């Protein structure tokens, strides 16, 4: 981790260092640290890890307790919010291709390393407007683990302060992140919605749905059931859950693009309407009877029948959907039709 609570986006196991060329500012990364430590404690019961001195950036002179690392990771998200009080996307989040701050102007420039210093005048050179609803959902689902860590160490005051920040984020996510039938994906640099029924393409994205449901956002209003129904209705296919729908069919130009390289991907490839394992986070939020179906559909062996090719073990047959449904406004349009391999 970095001293400011951020984290390198890539870690090199051999050198035990972060990738300096790629750097940080993928603003979901710190939350995975909290989730990992919480998982370790739950598995081992070893709360003493919170007292272990751990160096920042692998520099011994910067060592502090693991609990301090958790605190800085928590407030890294809290302090970096946009106009709606939702977490800033930064360079990007879990979906690297949804890079809302790249604005590269030369062919071949990497969205992961490019900084547009003409548009963003101050470091770290990313939008202070583009917000990620996925990170908001992650925060609401994961941050309570930090609260529990504080309670384990007897820091009631910090636990109450952190819980207040979580409640604030929950309120903002429900107010500005729910789109009526599912959760938005993001707000772009211009404050426009991404992953909304208002969008021409990419009306719904998979990532925020699972995290927001896992966080229990709007559960008392039935948002969880409605969201998972929308996932089944608009994102399910016989090969698994797709990343977004309808897939993007064209790119709008690097200077004006609001969906980064997601829109540069060919239709039904990579991050434009393709099935990806990232989608399985939704399985954790789905009802038990659907979890196995979601999981199985992503396994190539399951697509060949009820016997796995590698072990010959019987598994429940995948629940198959004939095609990714067309969004209501897209029926009869080429943009609403699924690719041949989905039919």
What general form does the structure show?
globular
DSSP helical segment count? 9
Radius of gyration: 21 Å
In round numbers, the mean pLDDT is: 79
Biggest sheet: strand arrangement = 5-6-7
Computed structural class: alpha+beta
The percentage helix is: 25-40%
**What's the helix-strand series?**
EEHEEHEHHEEEHHEEEHHH
Largest sheet composition:
3 strands, antiparallel
N-C termini distance:
45 Å
In percent, how much strand structure appears in the residues? 5-15%
Query: Could you give the count of β-strands?
Result: 11
Low-confidence region ranges: 252-264, 306-325, 328-343
In brief:
32% of the residues lie in helices and 8% in strands.
Task: Outline the structure in words.
The chain is of the alpha+beta class. The chain contains 9 helices and 11 strands. The strands form 5 sheets. The protein has a 3-stranded antiparallel β-sheet with strand order 5-6-7. Strands 1-2 form a two-stranded antiparallel sheet. A hairpin with a 2-residue loop joins strand 3 (about 55) and strand 4. Helix 1 (about 30-45) runs antiparallel to helix 2 (about 65-80). Mean pLDDT is about 80; it is low at about 250-265, about 305-325 and about 330-343.
Q: Can you tag this structure with a few keywords?
A:
3-stranded antiparallel β-sheet, 11 strands, two-stranded antiparallel ribbon, alpha+beta, 343 residues, 9 helices, globular
């Amino acid at each position: 981790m970095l001293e400011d609570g951020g984290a390198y986006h890539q870690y090199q196991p051999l050198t035990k260092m972060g990738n300096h060329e790629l750097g940080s500012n993928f603003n979901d990364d710190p939350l995975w640290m909290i989730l990992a430590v919480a998982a370790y404690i739950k598995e081992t019961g070893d709360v003493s890890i919170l007292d272990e001195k751990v160096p920042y950036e692998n520099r011994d002179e910067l060592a502090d307790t693991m609990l301090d690392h958790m605190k800085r990771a928590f407030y890294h998200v809290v302090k970096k919010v946009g106009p709606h009080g939702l977490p800033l996307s930064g360079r990007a989040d879990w979906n690297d291709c949804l890079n809302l701050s790249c604005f590269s102007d030369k062919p071949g420039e990497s969205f992961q390393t490019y900084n547009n210093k003409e548009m963003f005048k101050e470091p770290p050179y990313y939008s202070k407007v583009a917000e990620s609803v996925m990170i908001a959902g992650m925060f609401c689902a994961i941050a309570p683990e930090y609260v529990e860590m504080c309670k384990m160490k007897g820091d009631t005051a910090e636990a109450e302060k952190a819980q207040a920040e979580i409640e604030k984020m929950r309120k903002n996510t429900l107010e500005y992140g729910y789109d009526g039938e599912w959760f938005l994906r993001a707000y772009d640099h211009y404050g426009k919605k991404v992953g909304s029924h208002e969008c021409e393409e990419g009306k719904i994205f998979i990532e925020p749905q699972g995290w927001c449901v896992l966080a229990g956002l709007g559960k008392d209003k039935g948002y969880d059931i409605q969201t998972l129904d929308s996932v089944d209705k608009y994102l399910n296919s016989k090969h698994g859950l797709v990343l977004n729908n309808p897939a993007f069919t064209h790119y709008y130009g690097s200077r004006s693009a609001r969906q980064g390289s997601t829109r540069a991907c060919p239709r039904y490839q990579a991050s434009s309407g393709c099935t990806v394992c990232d989608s399985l986070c939704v399985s954790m939020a789905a009802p038990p009877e659907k979890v196995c179906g979601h999981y199985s559909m992503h396994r190539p062996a399951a697509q060949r029948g009820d016997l796995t090719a590698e072990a010959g073990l019987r598994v429940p047959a995948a629940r198959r959907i004939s095609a990714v449904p067309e969004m209501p406004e897209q029926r009869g349009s080429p943009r609403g039709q699924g690719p041949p391999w989905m039919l």
